[in-house]
Amino acid sequence: MMRIACPNCGLRDEREFAYGGEAHIDRPELDCDDQAWEEYLFLRANPKGEHAERWVHVHGCGVWFNLIRHTETHEVVAVYVMGVARP
Amino acid sequence: MSRYSAFALLRNWLGGNTDWDPVWRSPEPASSYDVIIIGAGGHGLATAYHLAKHYRPGRIAVIDKGWLGGGNTGRNTTIVRSDYFYKESADFYDHSLRLYASLSQELNFNIMYSARGILNLAHSRHEVDFQRRIVNAMQLNGIDAELLGREEVLKFCPVLNGDPNARFPIYGAMRQKRGGTVRHDAVAWGYARAADALGVDILQNTEVTGFRRDISGGVQGVETGKGFIGATKVGIATAGHSSVVAQMAGFRLPVASYGLQAFVSEPVKPVLHTVIGSAVIGSYCSQSDKGGIVCGGGIDPYPSFAQRGSAATMEKVLAGIVQLVPTFSSLRLLRQWAGIVDYTADSSPIIDRSPVPGIYLNVGWGGGGFKAIPAGGEAFAHLIAKDEPHPLTTAFGLQRFRDGALIDEAAAAGIEH
Fold first, then answer.
1. Which residue of A lies nearest to B243 if distances are taken between CA atoms?
2. Residues of chain B whose C-beta is under 8 A from some C-beta in A?
3. What value, to the nearest 5°, has the Cα angle with vertex B271 and ends B270 and B277?
4. CA distance B255 to B346
5. pTM, whole model, 2 decimals?
6. What is the C-alpha separation between B306 and A48, in angstroms, rounded?
7. At a CB cut-off of 8 Å and minimum separation 6, what does A65 contact?
8. CB-based burial of residue A29 (10 Å sphere; 0-12 exposed, 13-18 middle, 19+ buried)?
9. Which architecture characterizes domain A3-26+34-81 according to CATH?
10. Is the Cβ pair B310, A53 closer than 8 Å?
11. SS3 B214
C-alpha cells in the first residue's frame, strides 16, 4: 500500500487518491498533423523507473497535483503543484 | 523427441522411469539466427513452433531473461473464452479457442483444456438488456452464447448467493459453454517441447540489453547478457515489458503497463464447476483441478512494474467474490501474485511490424494474452515469415492509433481482458 503526501492534507493512504495519467503532456495545436495527434493521445513514456504523473486527492480535499513515482518500487520521490516544471 | 503415449508410459514404468527424454534442450547460444523471438512465454513459444513447423525460415531462437513460462503465462487465472463484441476480435479469439480445443493432440502434450463454461452474471435489469445485446452480437458473429434467467442460473450454479436482497442480486447471466480453463504452465511446456523438437533453440537466463542496427537502421541482432547474437528478424513478445524492450530499439509504443493480480485459496472439495464472473463487481473465479479457488479482477489503478500488486485492489476483488459466493468467506488464501500487463487504449493487441525494419511486435494484450496464445503464435509467425499481417490480425496494426480505427473491446467484453 502506498502512502502519498497530499500538498494540502499531508500523508494519506493510497485509497484516498486517484491516478490521473502522465504529467506534462502538452496538447498540440488543433491543425497539427495526424502523427502529432496520435502521440498526444496514445504515446506515453511508460518507464520502468521514475515517472512524472498527475494524481487527485479524490476522497480528501480534491486538489490535483503532480508527483514523481518509481514504477517498480512505488517510492514517491517528489510531490509538486500543478503548473510547475518537473523538478 | 519421443512421443508421449500409453505405451511410452508402460515402457518407462517397466524401466523404472529412468530413461525419459529431457522435455527440451538447454543449448548454448549460436552466434547468429535467422529469427530471434524475445520472450519465452506462451506467445513467444507458440510463434517459434508455428514458424518452425510451417515456414522453416532457418535457425530460430527464443530468448528469455528468466525461465520459460515464468512470466505472465505462469501467473494468470487460466481462463479461455471468445465472448467478444466486434467481428475482428470475435474471429481472432474464436480461432484461438478452437485451436486450444485441439492443442493437446497438436502438441502431444496434455494442456488440460476444460470446457466448463463461463458464466457472466447480471445484477440488474439494465445489465440483462446489455447482455442480450452482447449475446446477439456474438451469435451474429457465429459464436455460441446464451442467456440464462435467474432461476436457471441458481439451478446451474447453486453455490451462488441467491438472496434476492443481496448486495448484488442475480437477475440472470450470459454463458459461453466452450469457454473454460486450460492448464497455463502446460501451454508453455507443450509449445516449448514441440518447438524444441523442431530445432528451435530456447535460451533461458539470457537477458536482452540492447539492439544492434546497421547503417540503414535495420536490425542486425541483439545484445544480451551472454554477448551479441545476430539475427535478421527479431520478434518482441514480452508482454508487460514490451515498451521497455521497444525503448532499447529506439521507438515508443502506445501501451501502458499495469499490475494485474490473482489469488488462489487453499484447496477444497469440488464446489464450483464453471467459471463465474461479474462485470459490476469486477471479479471472477473458478476452481482449479487441485481444488483451489482461483480469483482474479481488474488491473491496479496506476501504472506499475512491481510484480506485487496493490492491497487496495486485492480487497476490492475479494470483497466482490465473497458477495457472489458467501461461503468462500471462510476460505484462506494460499497465494497472491501480480503480473505486469501492457494495455493499449482500445484493449486490443498490436501484431504488426515495428518502426524498425526487421523488428516485429506481438504486444498490448492487456490482461487477455493467455486465451490468445495459439492464434497469436500463428498470426505472429505468419507476420514474421511473410512480412505481412495474418488475415485475422490486419485490424490489429499500429496504424489504427493514427487513423483512429480503434477496436474498443473493453466495453464489449464487459470485464477486464
1. A46
2. 241, 243-244, 247, 252-257, 301-306, 310-312, 344-345, 401-403
3. 125
4. 10
5. 0.96
6. 9
7. A6, A7, A54, A55, A56, A57, A79, A80, A81, A82
8. exposed
9. 2-Layer Sandwich (3.30)
10. no
11. coil
Q: How confident is the model at residue A1 (pLDDT cuts 50, 70, 90)?
A: confident
- Tracing cell 459461453 back to the chain, one arrives at B176
What residues of A are in contact with residue B256 (Cβ under 8 Å)? 44, 46
Distance from CA of B311 to the nearest CA of A (A): 6
Q: Which pLDDT belongs to residue B19?
A: 86
- Express each pLDDT in B142-163 by its tens digit: 999 999 999 999 999 999 999 9
Q: What is the pLDDT of residues B86-113, one digit of tens each?
A: 999 999 999 999 999 999 999 999 999 9
Q: How far is B337 from chain A, CA to nearest CA, in Å?
A: 15
pLDDT at residue B417, as a whole number: 46
User: Which residues on chain B are in Cβ contact (under 8 Å) with A38?
Assistant: 254, 401-402
Partnered with residue B336 across adjacent β-strands are: B263
Q: How far apart are CA B117 and CA B175, in angstroms?
A: 7
Residues of B in contact with A2 (CB under 8 A): 310
Evaluate whether B338 touches B260 at the Cβ level (below 8 Å).
yes
Taking an 8 Å cut-off on Cβ atoms, the answer to whether A34 and B255 are in contact is no
Binding-face residues of A in 13-32 toward B, CB within 8 A: 14-15, 18-19
State which amino acid sits at residue B197. Answer: A
Query: Is the Cβ pair A46, B306 closer than 8 Å?
Result: no
Mean pLDDT by 10 residues, chain B (417 residues): 91 92 95 98 98 97 97 94 93 97 98 96 95 93 96 97 96 96 98 98 98 95 97 97 97 96 96 95 94 94 92 93 96 95 94 97 95 98 98 97 90 51
C-alpha grid cell for residue B79?
Answer: 481462463
- Each domain of chain A, given as residue ranges in start order, spans 3-26+34-81
Q: Is A35 on the interface with B (CB under 8 A)?
A: yes
Which residues contact residue B358 at a Cβ distance below 8 angstroms, ignoring those fewer than 6 apart? B218, B219, B231, B232, B233, B234
**How much of chain B, in percent, has pLDDT values that exceed 70?**
98
Kindly write down the DSSP assignment for every residue of B46-112, as one continuous string. HHHHHIIIII--S-EEEE-SS-TT-SGGGSS--EE----SSHHHHHHHHHHHHHHHTHHHHHTS---
Is the minimum CB–CB distance between A59 and chain B shorter than 8 Å?
no
Q: How far apart are CA B412 and CA B272, in angstroms?
A: 26
Complex ipTM: 0.96
Query: How far, in Å, CA of B223 to CA of B309, rounded?
Result: 31
